[in-house]
């Protein structure tokens, strides 16, 4: 559509110029010039799509805009050559008239070619699948300043040359006229100046608009990524689709985002490690390796996934559940390490690990710590309301507070402890099933049983004789 307008405008303006504005083309006849122009431009317009397809669309994206520029301009220069040949050899145009026509075509061609090259750049920018930015090392091949300077210099050059030719030819022509002819000739001369000036100015304004439109697009892409980063989203990279300063700026921005992501990953890893090690430290007091919290946290994550909790919630459960028994730190050795059954005061003391744990983890703004506090406070509640410390029932206990006990008990039963042998998986599952609706949430028990192969795989991965970093 855009190129059609350029062709129509060029043919109309050149026809109008030749027949109505410039008296030097009158020797060609009223309609001959228009017919000749239309034939040449229409022929080139028809072969143009083939050239664009072969030489632009099939080329590498980095070369598409410049290839488009050269093809579009070459077509107009070809038109200038053909018209120049006919005008000179068939209609005996003088050199200046021939040059005016040639320059006119070249000027229209330059503006059309630059506009279409900018349009191509815009299309590339709007086609994300066309460019694989990661495989592309951004570099400045054609700087923005050079583009702007080229447009300004060529526009001024064409305008100056055309005006120079108008002055050169028409002034001599005016000087040869008598007084009466001079008055009407002067009007024609001014009209020609006005026409040439208006057309070039219009083309220049259009080109500046296209240039600024692309600039705006580049700024928007850059700003959009920076805004995303500022709001904590590190997944929106700048899409690099040029070979100028913006490409380098975008490449640096992407590198910065990748570094931030890596830093975040390291922070997250460190945070998880600290949390897990805190949980393991508490477990070490009554468990030889502390691997129990590693296994039960991964069981809990798997069960949360099966219960259709969000990914964020599953991640939080994985990270928070290792701290469920952190309150054991506050239990005296004679109670915590007693091989036999706890009785009376001892049992009451042991139960306080729930409040101690919740108290250690309380008062944080972090979602993770808040969930850890919640799990520590509720992991000994029972579905039928017979648990402690608050005797919560059913869904009064948070989903996390219902998930963790199943995983905690399963791993405790199937592990060796100083005071007991490891149960078989079948026996442990049997007990968990028996506790459906009593100790445990019945739906979650069903979910747990249905993912047993995955649970056993996790159990194997984090067995006692393996350690985690
Ligand atoms: Fe506990």
Largest sheet: none
Give me the count of strands.
0
Shape: rod-shaped
Question: Gyration radius, to the nearest Å?
Answer: 40 Å
Q: Structural class of the helix and strand makeup?
A: mainly alpha
What small molecules does the structure contain? fe (ii) ion
Give average pLDDT, whole number: 86
Helices, by number, come to 17
The level of helicity is: over 70%
- Quaternary status of these chains? single chain
Termini Cα gap: 63 Å
Fraction in beta strands: under 5%
Order of helices and strands: HHHHHHHHHHHHHHHHH
Low-confidence stretches: none
Number of domains: 2
How would you characterize the overall build of this protein?
With 469 residues, this protein is mainly α. The chain has helices at residues 2-21, 32-57, 61-89, 95-125, 144-175, 179-230, 245-284, 291-306, 311-320, 333-336, 344-351, 353-361, 367-378, 399-413, 425-434, 442-450, 452-461. It folds into 2 domains: 2-230, no CATH class; 279-461, Hypothetical protein af1432 (Orthogonal Bundle). It has 17 helices and no strands. The model has no long low-confidence stretch (mean pLDDT 86). Fe (ii) ion binds next to loops.
């Amino acid at each position: 559509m855009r190129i059609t307008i350029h062709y129509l405008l060029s043919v109309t303006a050149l026809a109008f110029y030749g027949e109505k504005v410039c008296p030097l083309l009158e020797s060609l006849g009223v309609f001959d010039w228009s017919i000749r122009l239309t034939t040449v431009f229409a022929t080139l317009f028809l072969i143009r799509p083939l050239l664009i397809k072969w030489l632009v669309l099939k080329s590498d994206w980095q070369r598409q805009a410049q290839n488009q520029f050269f093809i579009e301009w070459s077509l107009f220069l070809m038109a200038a050559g053909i018209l120049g040949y006919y005008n000179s050899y068939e209609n005996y145009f003088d050199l200046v008239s021939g040059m005016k026509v040639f320059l006119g075509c070249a000027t229209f061609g330059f503006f059309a070619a630059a506009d279409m090259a900018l349009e191509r750049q815009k299309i590339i920018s709007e086609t994300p699948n066309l460019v694989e930015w990661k495989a592309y090392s951004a570099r400045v091949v054609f700087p923005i300043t050079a583009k702007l300077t080229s447009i300004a210099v060529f526009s001024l050059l064409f305008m100056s040359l055309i005006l120079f030719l108008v002055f050169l030819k028409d002034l001599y022509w005016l000087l040869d006229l008598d007084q009466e002819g001079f008055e009407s000739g002067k009007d024609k001369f001014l009209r020609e100046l006005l026409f040439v000036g208006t057309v070039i100015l219009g083309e220049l304004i259009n080109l500046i608009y296209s240039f600024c439109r692309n600039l705006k697009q580049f700024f928007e892409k850059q700003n959009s990524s920076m805004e995303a980063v500022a709001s904590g989203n590190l997944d929106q990279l700048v899409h690099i689709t040029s070979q100028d300063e913006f490409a380098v700026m975008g490449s640096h921005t992407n590198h910065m985002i990748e570094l931030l992501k890596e830093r975040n990953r390291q922070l997250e890893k460190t945070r998880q490690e600290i949390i897990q090690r805190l949980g393991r430290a508490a477990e070490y007091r009554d468990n030889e390796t502390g691997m129990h919290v590693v296994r039960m946290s991964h069981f809990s994550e798997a069960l949360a996934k099966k219960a259709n909790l969000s990914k964020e919630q599953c991640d939080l459960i994985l990270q928070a559940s290792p701290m469920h028994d952190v309150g054991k730190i506050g239990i005296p050795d004679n109670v915590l390490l007693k091989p036999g059954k706890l009785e009376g005061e001892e049992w009451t003391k042991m139960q306080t690990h729930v409040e101690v744990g919740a108290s250690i983890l309380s008062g944080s703004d972090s979602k993770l710590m808040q969930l850890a506090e919640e799990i520590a406070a509720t992991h000994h509640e029972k579905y039928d309301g017979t648990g402690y410390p608050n005797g919560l029932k059913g869904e009064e206990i948070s989903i996390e507070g219902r998930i963790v006990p199943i995983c905690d008990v399963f791993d405790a039963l199937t592990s060796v402890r100083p005071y007991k042998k490891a149960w078989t998986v079948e026996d442990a599952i049997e007990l968990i099933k028996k506790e459906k609706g009593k100790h445990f949430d019945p739906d979650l028990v069903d979910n747990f049983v249905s993912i047993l192969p995955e649970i056993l795989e996790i159990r194997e991965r984090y067995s006692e004789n393996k350690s985690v970093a």
